Amino acid sequence: MAMNETSYSRRNMMRLIGGAAAAGAVAIPNLYSATTWAPNDGKKKIGMIVRSTRPEDLEMPMEGFKDDITPVERLFVRSHHYTPKVNLATWKLKIGGVVDKPVELTFEQIQKLPKVEVVAVMECAGNGRSFYQPSMAGLQWEHGAVGNVRWGGVRLSDVLKMAGVGSNGVEVLFDGADVPVGQQSDFQRSIPLTKAMTPEPLLAYELNNEPLPTSHGFPLRVVVPGWASDCWVKWLTGITVLDKPFEGFYMKTAYRAPAGPVKPGTAVDPAAMQPVTKLKPKSVITFPEHNAQVKVGETLNLRGVVWSGDGHPVTMGKISLDGGATWEDVRPITYNGPYAWRTVGFTWQPPKEGYYRIMLRAGDHTGDSQPHVQAWNPSGYGWNVAHSIGIEVVKEVAAPAPAPAETAAAPAPPASLKTTCVTCHEDNVIKQQKLSRTQWDREIDKMVRWGAKVKPEDRATILDYLSKTYPPR
Ligand SMILES: Nc1nc2c(c(=O)[nH]1)N[C@H]1C(S)=C(S)[C@@H](COP(=O)(O)O)O[C@H]1N2
Ligand SMILES: [Mo]
Fold this sequence. Notes:
Cytochrome Bc1 Complex, Chain D, domain 2; alpha+beta; 3 domains; binds the ligand Nc1nc2c(c(=O)[nH]1)N[C@H]1C(S)=C(S)[C@@H](COP(=O)(O)O)O[C@H]1N2; 5-stranded antiparallel sheet; Sulfite Oxidase, Chain A, domain 2; single chain; 5-stranded mixed sheet
């Protein structure tokens, strides 16, 4: 939702920027601890890696890949702004733009349309960002900004047909009820009309056969099976058919990557980059864990998951037990359709002691498969290197090692960090960044553009602290 549509919210956000402690400020309760999460609809998250508490950004732990269908308790959350509360009684979906007649639909009317279900991988474009070298700003996701979910809802194309799409339509723009914090841009994303009119994209109101939970977009969200989930707009309120490409920040600047290789660490003009769209083949080894010890000669049931994008089902799954020198086929264990991830297995008796490098590699019927070396891109999108782990094959498996000693605590932050930065967001989002002084300087500029009030006398102290405490990887 555009900020100027809700002046009440704008006032609240401005107060937050002024410091939550100021008189009359709206306190946003912190409902989170490191491992539990209780949003207002009571759906608990279990064992999540907390990347940010406010807004809500939660990563699925590695154990989550063992589920064939990801339960909502384990499903990652990625929200750019604070989670809006939507009142179903007054909620409407408006369809307008270059259409024959604009349409407004209530939730009841949407539920009466033909229902479809699909199991589809939902993966953030930034999943795996923390593996890039050199590191860049952004949420430092490891493997778990992804889940495999059963979606239920109506076809986007059915809803568009109700409004009658004009022949000059080129893109379909989605808008949700979330309100940007400070001067940030509204989260609006578009997809080509040709994609929107295919049977796959859904407006989903169910997740794993239950009403869509608040954090995942209640009451309605976009689902584009096979595409990265940055266009899967949550808390959907508006669909606009456009006669030219959308120019907003989240299309023209964010979610773009170079078509070919660029020198790692260089800035690339967004105009020279393409929007991130379809998912690429990808794998995660789920058993055993990296650096696990296993007994020589004993049967080992290796497990992993593989997926691909855009309706190109995963057709190739290969495993290497010798660091990529030789490859063998894995055994598919599950199948939930072309947009779902598949669990795969491989049974092996490690023949002799030593350290083994195990790799899993997925591919699709177009011949696309995973790289062994990732091409770098400025925002760290699309990480899909063939996953590898190491295991130690030993005569006798040792008792588990004692927990490592606590590492030295980071130096105390300057008071100005709290009053300047930790007002719109918590410090957990700062602590995961690994940036050079120049990159930190640019982050402060960005925050100022977004509405942070950095006092000139505090700037150097904040920059010194951040660049000393959170240097590049
Ligand atoms: N309205 C709205 N929709 C949104 C977002 C957002 O911030 N606001 N984040 C997007 C991004 S980047 C991702 S990866 C997915 C995450 O969906 P989830 O939170 O259900 O996991 O939602 C997308 N839809
Ligand atoms: Mo995302």
